[in-house]
Write a structure and sequence with these properties.
Layout lengths: L1 E8 L4 E6 L24 H9 L3 E8 L1 H12 L4 E9 L3 H16 L9 H11 L2 E8 L5 H9 L15 E6 L6 E5 L5 E5 L4 H8 L6 E6 L10 E6 L9 H11 L6 E6 L6 H14 L3 H6 L1 E5 L12 H13 L7 E4 L2 H12 L5 H16 L13 H14 L13 H7 L2 H47 L4 H16 L2 H41 L5 E3 H53 L30 E15 L16 E14 H61 L4 H25 L3
Parallel strand pairs: 1-3, 3-4, 5-10, 5-11, 6-9, 11-12, 12-13
Antiparallel strand pairs: 1-2, 6-10, 7-8, 7-9, 14-16, 15-16
Helix pairs in contact: 3-15, 3-20, 4-15, 5-11, 7-18, 11-12, 11-14, 12-14, 15-19, 15-20, 16-19, 17-18, 17-19, 18-19
């Protein structure tokens, strides 16, 4: 029996594990730094067995409730014998958020004017209001818009049986009572503003060919805007987007680098090409970063209130759904059965918004059905931690009304709403925000505080040292003036710009190599697909079908190519530029001991003018042969036979003869080559565009550096001027010493408070 003590800080991403009160050895797999618990926790049971050579453990976990739930889940699903699993609670995010507000107020009321500048306030507000996306994805007719409406508790998104979402809609929570919108075209130019947005407006905008994206501000009722700047993003289905950039946006959102939470809406219908493609991308993304990547995807199985007893058990259906997802490489998915439409209608009726008598009657029927059939208690099947399920259960108990006989009232809409599964989905979103988004936000805010406090502290220390050395004021003043001249004459900047030029030329070359690797990867995918179609001659109908398959394949490949090219070019330029800027900062800091901070921003990549989808093969141009082939048999009636012709009486009524048809043949090899040629040309065009863009961005970075360096130098000269004043004023040394000591004492105290925010 081993005693395991685990301490995890989700803000600092620090983990400490002790075995029998001893730290692991230096080469132990239990040593984890700068990595989120959920990225490796699933491996913990195996690591413990290897480290301890034991299967029996007592475990104490010091951390937040949600992290403890993850720890508990992992141990319960393992082969280990956990005699005792104890939780020592840590401070939760709500405690941190209160402390952050207190510290910020104290900073704003403090002795440093630099910390009261609008730039710091803006940085704080940006960190505090950092948006967190929930991307809603589905193939056609899965009920995506209806589910979003159910979450909004109102009818805002157009929803009908046929595919209807052709634009990207971003709904940001502001807690305001009404919705307002800004409408953009495919060049992201504002084309319309709506101070009050209605359902009718959304129907109109969705059918407007000029509209590409809508940004909406309004209330998302199940979250508080101050807690998390939640943004629900409605994306078009794979084949229903009017803007090519939408598909690229979906690929980016599903990629492993995305931090967005994804609601993947499914129904009982499975196995479409679109569904298979999306699930493949999800599977690839979920293979990295362990449990966090798994948590990022919520699979909602919608429209389940239409099930009957003849459909079998819901439990069996959900197990089959899990197997279906497993066949696509998705293990242990977060599954949430639901009825979005019933939940929406209940909420509309509760608010008095729904007036249609047919809808009212239908909803009352659904309410009774959900309340009567325990098989349709979707909340019981939701993939949620036990603590959150208990909260939902407690809420259910509070809304259930009992008859005198003790039976449940069937017409209780509040109970049916919980059974609809939508509150469980809302709880899952809240859980993810609390576990990942809020902890990251708190760390960003603390980093913003620390960075600015460090900067003013360094400067104040420099002033203090100058005041202390007032006897050497003349020599110090001379040194400061030399530095001012050195910076002002531009020599340092000129030298560095030359280095930047050289580095960016290298970036262009490196980007070209990286682009070539991406193109080669996609070339292999295309060749593999084409090879399936090589062989003998086929008829024109088969060729048309195969051409359609290839067209779909290439259409789906295009956004993946764009995202990959974006990644290699942007990463190459960004990493080099950030390295160079940091080098220049360090160079300045080396001879001034003053820390100056800034950053380089690289614009999003927009280069894909050639598309690999413009490659539909005209199979009629490839006809190489025309033949006659048997096409079954047909019955030929003996029209000569008649009662008045005695000589025909013994003849047969008719006979069967072989039919023939004319078949146009094409060469499968020629067909494959005809398809491949334009694809290859367009791949090469995309590669050329990517390398050109890399070089353009490199040129832009050089220009940015010139501006940044000039700005840095201006700040530095200003600070040196202030230091020069201190060095010259020897008669004021004592007063300034006292002033600096007082300020530094305040800084030390506030720094301790800032650091304490991240402690658990």
């Amino acid at each position: 029996m081993k005693n395991i003590a685990i301490k995890y800080n989700p803000y600092k991403l620090e983990t400490e594990i002790k075995i029998d009160n001893k730290l692991p050895k230096a080469d132990s797999n239990l040593l984890k730094s700068d990595i989120r618990l959920q990225e490796w926790i699933e491996d913990l049971p195996k690591i413990l067995v290897e480290e301890c050579n034991d299967l029996n453990f007592d475990v104490e976990f010091f951390g937040t409730q949600l992290d403890f739930e993850d720890m508990k889940e992992v141990f319960e699903s393992s082969d280990l014998t956990i005699r005792r699993l104890n939780h020592k609670p840590a401070k939760e995010t709500k405690d941190k958020e209160k402390l952050i507000s207190e510290v910020f107020k104290e900073i704003q009321e403090g002795p440093f004017e630099e910390l009261k500048a609008p730039a710091l306030k803006k940085a704080f507000e940006q960190a505090k209001n950092n948006e967190f996306e929930v991307d809603v994805v589905a193939t056609m007719s899965a009920g995506k818009s209806t589910l979003i409406n159910a979450l909004l508790q109102t009818k805002l998104m157009p929803s009908k049986q046929e595919a209807c979402t052709a634009i990207i809609t971003r709904i940001k929570d502001t807690d305001s009572e009404t919705y307002q919108a800004k409408v953009y075209d495919d060049k992201h130019e504002l084309i319309e503003e709506l101070p009050i947005l209605s359902y009718a407006d959304m129907v109109r905008l969705n059918s407007d060919e000029k509209v590409s994206e809508i940004t909406i501000l309004g209330d998302i009722p199940f979250v508080i805007a101050e807690d998390a700047a939640l943004v629900i993003v409605d994306t078009p289905g794979p084949n229903n987007s009017r803007d090519p950039q939408h598909k690229k946006r979906q690929v980016e959102m599903l990629s492993e680098s995305s931090k967005a939470l994804v609601l993947y809406i499914m129904t009982g219908e499975r196995g479409t090409d679109d569904d298979n493609l999306l699930l493949r991308r999800v599977s690839e993304s979920m293979k990295v970063k362990g449990k966090q990547s798994k948590d990022r995807f919520i699979f909602v199985v919608n429209k389940l209130d239409g099930r009957t007893k003849d459909d079998g058990s819901l439990e069996t259906f959900l197990e089959d759904t899990k197997k279906y997802l497993q066949n696509h490489g998705i293990e242990n998915p977060n599954l949430f059965p639901a009825s979005a439409l019933t939940a929406l209608n209940i909420r509309l009726l509760e608010s008095g918004e729904e007036k249609d008598e047919d809808v009212i009657d239908e909803t009352e029927t659904k309410v009774k059905k959900l309340n009567r059939n325990e098989e349709l208690y979707f909340d019981q099947f939701a993939t949620l931690p036990a603590s959150i399920k208990r909260k939902i259960s407690d809420n259910l108990s509070s809304v259930v009304q009992l008859k005198e006989s003790g039976g449940k009232k069937l017409n209780n809409p509040k109970e049916a709403l919980i059974h609809s599964g939508i509150p469980s989905i809302e709880a899952a979103i809240q859980q993810y925000v609390e576990k990942y988004a809020k902890t990251a936000k708190i760390k960003n805010i603390v980093d913003t505080f620390s960075h600015n406090l460090e900067e003013v502290g360094a400067f104040e220390n420099a002033k203090k040292e100058l005041a202390a050395a007032h006897e050497e004021s003349e020599r110090i003043s001379h040194q400061i003036k030399e530095l001012q001249t050195k910076i002002s004459d531009g020599n340092e900047a000129k030298k560095f710009i030359d280095k930047v030029d050289d580095q960016m030329i290298k970036v262009g070359r490196d980007a070209e190599d990286a682009v070539d690797n991406v193109i080669a990867k996609f070339q292999r995918q295309i060749t593999k697909q084409i090879d399936q179609f090589r062989g003998q001659e086929i008829d024109i109908d088969q060729a048309e079908a195969e051409a359609a398959k290839l067209e779909t394949f290439s259409r789906n490949l295009q956004p993946e190519l764009e995202v990959e090219l974006d990644k290699v070019v942007i990463n190459s330029v960004r990493s080099t530029s950030e390295t160079l800027l940091e080098e220049y900062r360090n160079k300045l800091a080396a001879f001034t001991e003053i820390h100056v901070a800034d950053g380089i921003k690289i614009e999003p990549l927009k280069l894909m003018e050639a598309s690999i989808t413009d490659n539909r093969v005209n199979v009629e141009d490839l006809i190489c042969d025309t033949t006659e082939e048997e096409d079954g048999q047909e019955y030929v009636k003996n029209n000569d036979k008649a009662w008045y012709k005695p000589w025909t009486w013994l003849q047969e009524q008719g006979y069967y003869k072989t039919k023939y048809k004319t078949v146009q043949k094409i060469s499968r090899s020629e067909f494959a080559q005809e398809f491949l040629t334009p694809v290859q040309e367009n791949l090469n065009t995309n590669a050329t565009k990517a390398t050109i863009y890399a070089k353009e961005q490199s040129t832009k970075v050089v220009a940015d550096f010139k501006k940044k360096i000039k700005s840095l130098d201006t700040v530095l000269v200003d600070k040196l001027t202030k230091l020069d004043d201190y060095a010259k004023s020897g008669n004021l040394a004592k007063e300034r010493m006292k002033e600096s000591q007082k300020k530094l004492a305040w800084l030390e105290a506030i720094n301790q408070k800032v650091e304490s925010i991240l402690e658990i």
